[in-house]
Amino acid sequence: MVHPADDLARTLTNALHTGDLDTLVSTLHAQGRLQGRPAQLISNLRPIITAAQRDYVSLLRPPADFHAWLSGVLLTNADGTPAKPNTRTSRVLTLRALYRALRQLGIITGDPLLDFHAPPAERRSDPLPTRETIQTLIDAARPDPALHAALLLLWHHAVPIATLLRLRWDAFNPHERTLLRNDVVSPLTPAAATAVERLHHRAGYDPLFEDTLDVVAPRRMFPYDSPDALRLRILHVTRDATLPFMPPGALRRAALRDHARSATHLGYLNTTHYDRVVQLAQTLTDEQ
């Protein structure tokens, strides 16, 4: 009798080799291992799978020049037109998510995209999203408490992505509504504090039972295991809301433009450095 895990691995491996994206994506999506709309996931993966079959490149056992090959594939669409930066980004993020699912199932052991430098989603000279566009994204993310809180910490407080991903609940003081980020205690805006409180309660904290504060304290605040996982979730929400993709870095820079209240508010110990950064951000905004 074939073990269910072996049968699943055989099904997924065969689907990847034959380019059967319907089976590949629907199977992983049904198991909750691949998030997003199946049709969009298939659309993101199809150019890569098609090119791999054309060039006889194994995606399960990539060749030594895999990164160079993938970079070339990402540059163009199927019709030969140049792929937009955000299109390239969405394809890489979906491929990363696919590889993560395959690792979880034991079908592959390493990460074929380790150290792969994905094409940037935007240039620093590109205009930042407007306040109104970012607020629309915040509103669209409200049904997802984790993403809603993460976006507000990025936009209202310019929390670095690495810091955001490693935050634990002991860094949040629900009584004072502050967040410890590295060496700075930041007072949160009312909107950010409310979003973080909602997530805190979902994690198990109940203000009526003070002992729950210590129980929740060592747990991670956010479920994202990598920056790409956060970017992929933002990508899904922006697409569903018919918004342009807004990278976390752009939201952080917009914080300097839209929410520069004080040095501690944005996590700066050095007031002089904070003043210079804000002045530069405002200058770039004026130039746009």
Question: Key terms for this structure?
Answer:
mainly alpha; 2 domains; disordered C terminus; 3 strands; 288 residues; three-stranded antiparallel β-sheet; hpI Integrase, Chain A
Summary of the model, kept short:
57% of the residues lie in helices and 3% in strands. The protein has 288 residues and is mainly alpha-helical.
Layout of helices and strands:
Layout: H1 4-18, H2 21-30, H3 38-55, H4 66-74, H5 85-104, H6 131-140, H7 145-157, H8 161-166, E1 172-173, E2 178-181, E3 184-187, H9 190-203, H10 211-216, H11 227-240, H12 248-258, H13 271-287
Antiparallel strand pairs: 1-2, 2-3
Helix pairs in contact: 1-2, 2-3, 3-5, 5-11, 6-7, 7-9, 7-12, 12-13
